[in-house]
Every structure is written in structure tokens, then in C-alpha cells.
Amino acid sequence: MVLEETDNDSVFEPQVTDEYVETQFGDVHCVMMGTVKANRPVILTFPDVGLNHKSCFETLFNHEDMHEIVRHFAVCHVEAPGQQEGAKTLPAAYPYPSMEQLSEVLPGVLKHFGLRSVIGLGVGAGAYILARFALNYPDLVDGVVLININPNSESLMDTVTSKITDWTYTLPDKILANLLGKEELQTNQDLVATYRHYITATMNEANVSQFLRSYSNRSALEVERPVPEGNINVRTLKCSSLLVVGDNSPAVEAVVDCNSKLNPTKTTLLKMADCGGLPQVDQPAKVIEALKYFIQGLGYLSSASMTRLRSRTASGSSTRGRIHSHGAEEKRGRARTDISMESVSTVNQSVSKSTEVAC
User: Fold this and answer.
1) Are 23 and 108 in contact (CB under 8 A)?
2) Quick one: pLDDT at residue 153?
């Protein structure tokens, strides 16, 4: 199915509804933007530990380039129990859900809003939750965009202690060490101050600490790359996947590792140059551009709708590269997706044959 864009560039103001969805693991705060349409999926987001849907995604969704997407796709922001802005402290008797259980609340969210399928967009812990959801419910997920995904089970504190040995171990320090790279923590004091304010002023730290503990105690995703002429029925993501990470992010090694474990015909790794731990905040235009091509590769948004994007990209740089994603979709007759981005170069890997884009 191909959806055509209109030429109307007027400001688009989607309808916003704010609801709490009752699930077996507690009430989940959800914000629905736009009108759900029967012929297309909904973009479902899940933020990282210490962030809510505003501090994690507002820069991305408020960017003018994002209007081309939200005109045609409703968006459902989902937050883990007690992680919404201004949340009350969870009851002492409330057992905070594990990461596996948090992935299990999503089918209930989809049922509540009458959603048939989603395109997942998650960061950090949210990316892990959406990956688990896609593994367990492949029929409900058209594709996933996973920023800073860590598929492994090692303790978060292994990363934290390597970066904040001279700090007092407050909760904001732990969260910041998870979100930002060493260089950002040392040199970008404005960014550090901004996100410290978000954590301390908008989040309930008692609730955040429970979510952090759940993420720190996560189990490995246990995904395995299918091997040609080998076992093709291994556990892996069956949907198309876009992995995104900044080259100065603390999650670089984990994201590259995740890429090595996924199906190369369905996976693209986007490594962003001069970017830290928050690509959707640092360079939202580039993330949106990649998201548009990803959605087009799923069979939505016509090639004509990308004309303005290509023109802007071409005018922004005289040196451009082009990556072609050759996946199983092509073999079934689906049009090839061209990912054209400013200062894009092809990175050939000897270990992995999946598409990697450095921008």
C-alpha cells in the first residue's frame, strides 16, 4: 500500500488525547496524537529511563520535518508505570514490572485504542521493551526504530561506574551516565543541566529508581542471526529494523552488537557522526530523514512525497553517498528503498552484511 502526500505545507495540529490504560501490571499513561486510520499502523513510542514522552521525544516530534509523517500516522506515546510527568509515588506494595512484563502491557494498549499494528520507536530501555514486544508479537509490529538498543543483560552500573567515579552516586547522576557519553558529560554543561532539570523537576525519582532497577536486571534478548544454509528458524526480529546510535553515545558497542545478532536482510544500522547519546535531540532532522525512508521501505509514503526532502538534502551538501537496502522485501517485488542522507558514506563490514549508514 502506498500513501500519497498532499502539497499542503500548512501547520498541522493533530488532536491529542491523554489517557491511563489499565493493564495487568498497573496503569500505563498514554498520549494519543492524531486520528487512527484503519489502513495504516500507528507510531508507538517508548522513552528511556529517567525520561518521559516530552523530554525524550518532544524535540523530534515538534520539528517541522516531522509534520510530513504525523499528517498520515497517528502517534501513541506510552510511558512505563509511574514515569509520566508529575506522577505520584507508586504504592509501597506495588511490585514494579520486569522488562518482560512491561513489554506485555503493550498488547493491552493496542487493544484499548483499537490499534491493529504499530511502527515502534524506542530509546534505551524503551527500545529494549519494543524489541521484546516485536519478538513476542510479530503480527502486531510492522517495523521498529531502536535508538541506543542494548540487547545484553549486563548491569547498567558497569557502564555508570566507568564514567562517574568522581561523582556522588545520586539517581540523576546514574541516569545522566546512561543517557550521555563521556564527552557530553564533561563538556556540554548546558545539555547536562537541562536533563538534570528534567529528571529532578518533572520525574518522580522514587518511581524512576524502580524503573532503573528493572532495566538493570533485564535478561538478554537472546536473538540470533539467521545463517544462510543453516537454521533459518532462529529467534530474531521478523520485522524491518532501524538501529540508531550517535558515535559518541555510551551505547555504541551495544548497538553494534545488537546489529550483529539481527537478520541482515531486514536490519539497517545508522551511526550518526558528531552525535552523542540523544540523537533524536542532537540531530532530529537526520533522524526524521532516516525515519521517512524507513517508513517508505515498509510500503508507506510514496516516492513523490520524498521530493522536497531529497531537494533539501542535496542543497545541503555537495558530497553525498547513497545506500541501497537489499532485503527480502525486494525479492517479493517491493520497491527498493534508497536512503539518501547528508554526508552519508557506505561502511563495508567484514563481519556483518547488514546495511550500515554513517552520517
Assistant:
1) yes
2) 87
Q: Which three cell numbers stand for residue 235?
A: 529467534
CA-CA distance, 144 to 127, in Å (whole number)? 8
User: Residue 277: which of 256, 246, 242 has the closest Cα?
Assistant: 246
Separation CA 225–CA 325 (nearest Å)? 17
Find residue 346's DSSP bridge partners: 357
- pTM of the model as a whole: 0.83
Q: How far apart are CA 343 and CA 54, in angstroms?
A: 29
Strand order in the sheet with 118-123: 16-23, 26-33, 75-79, 42-46, 118-123, 141-147, 240-246, 267-272, 355-358, 345-346
Q: Give the pLDDT means over successive 10-residue stretches in the chain (359 positions).
A: 44 80 94 91 97 96 92 95 95 96 96 95 98 96 97 63 55 93 92 95 96 94 80 82 95 94 93 94 94 93 56 41 36 35 34 55
Q: Is the Cβ–Cβ distance between 138 and 223 less than 8 Å?
A: no
For the chain, give the secondary structure using H, E and C. CCCCCCCCCCCCCCCEEEEEEEECCEEEEEEEECCCCCCCCEEEEECCCCCCHHHHHHHHHHCHHHHHHHCCCCEEEEECCCCCCCCCCCCCCCCCCCHHHHHHCHHHHHHHHCCCCEEEEEECHHHHHHHHHHHHCHHHEEEEEEECCCCCCCCHHHHHHCCCCCCCCCHHHHHHHHHCCHHHHHHCHHHHHHHHHHHHHHCCHHHHHHHHHHHHCCCCCCCCCCCCCCCCCCCCCCCEEEEEEECCCCCHHHHHHHHHHCCCCCEEEEEECCCCCCHHHHCHHHHHHHHHHHHHHCCCCCHHHHHHHHHHHHHHCCCEEEEEECCHHHHCCCCCEEEEEECCEECCCCCCCCEEEEC
Residues 324, 327, 328: CA angle, nearest 5 degrees = 155
What's residue 168's pLDDT? Answer: 55
> Do 32 and 75 meet the contact criterion of CB atoms below 8 Å apart?
yes
